[in-house]
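Design request, tokens follow.
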């Protein structure tokens, strides 16, 4: 085995990652002869590499992880680990130290600010509303994409987009349970769900509403409400407001006052920072923390909850 890197997958997201990696490392591209089943010869070929990036459709992740995760090489796998509950149970029992799942919103600007103890007490979250959508499913190309096919993407937008937001909430606040989910296919292009509403209760009993769709007007709007402040994010800038108690006055409160306005650059979804984190572990020959692996498994489980 050498220390070279190889990438499996050539989709749109894969190309984004390749573009960034070109600045950092040298890598090869692997294209399997059969996308649904990797041969033993191909497995032996891939095992020659010290770092493997699995950037393939969700339904194919397990076939690569199960054959390549032997703790001899680092593996970067796109989220979610799998869209099959039985495969997830097997992944959960695997060796952890060199297997990394790319839930990159943990490294995003919004996560950085919500994690800042000088600004927020996360235990004081009361409510959050996450609305993120666009109308990709209305394009003709969508019906031919694997994201629209139930046998490839059985949980539809929930496993593609919503799982990112579920993981962000789980990472920041911890999820107690999924209260309810509503899923539907609005576009009728394809046979899996292109729209989802998820309602969550956190470990501190805050409520979170998540709306994602491939069949609606474009919107990117996040709101996190705490006891005396709230955060708004429209995808371009973060605004933090604070409400003050007014003593000895008929007015009970003053505000909300805008206390911070932050322009957000390319780190909106944390992808580059997630890649940097992984590459640093590889370079330093250190293990991926178990808590990140366990969190990935736990977040993945929630897409199977109705």
């Amino acid at each position: 085995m050498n220390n070279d890197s190889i990438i499996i997958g050539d989709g749109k997201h894969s190309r984004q990652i390749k573009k960034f990696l070109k600045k950092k490392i040298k890598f090869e591209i692997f294209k399997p002869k059969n996308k649904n089943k990797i041969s033993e010869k191909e497995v032996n070929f891939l095992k020659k590499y010290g770092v493997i990036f699995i950037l393939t459709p969700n339904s194919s992740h397990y076939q690569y992880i199960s054959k390549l995760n032997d703790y001899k090489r680092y593996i970067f796998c796109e989220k979610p680990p799998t869209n099959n509950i039985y495969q997830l149970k097997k992944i959960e029992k695997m060796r952890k130290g060199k297997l990394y799942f790319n839930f990159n919103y943990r490294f995003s600007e919004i996560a950085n600010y919500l994690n800042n103890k000088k600004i927020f007490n996360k235990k004081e979250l009361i409510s959050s509303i996450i609305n993120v959508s666009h109308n990709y499913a209305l394009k003709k190309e969508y019906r031919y994409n694997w994201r629209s096919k139930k046998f490839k993407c059985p949980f539809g937008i929930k496993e593609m987009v919503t799982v990112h937001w579920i993981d962000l909430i789980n990472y920041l606040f911890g999820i107690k349970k999924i209260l309810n989910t509503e899923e539907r296919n609005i576009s009728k292009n394809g046979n899996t769900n292109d729209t989802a509403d998820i309602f969550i209760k956190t470990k501190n009993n805050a409520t979170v509403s998540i709306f994602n769709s491939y069949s609606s007007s474009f919107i990117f709007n996040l709101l996190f409400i705490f006891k005396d402040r709230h955060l708004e994010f429209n995808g371009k800038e973060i605004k933090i407001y604070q409400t003050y108690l007014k003593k000895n006055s008929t007015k009970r409160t003053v505000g909300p006052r805008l206390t911070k306005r932050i322009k957000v650059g390319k780190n909106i979804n944390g992808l580059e920072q997630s890649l940097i984190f992984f590459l640093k572990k590889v370079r330093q020959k250190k293990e991926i923390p178990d808590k990140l692996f366990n969190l990935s498994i736990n977040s993945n489980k929630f897409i199977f909850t109705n």
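Comment from the thread starter after seeing the answer: thanks! Helices lie at 12-21, 40-46, 61-68, 85-92, 109-114, 157-172, 271-284, 290-301.
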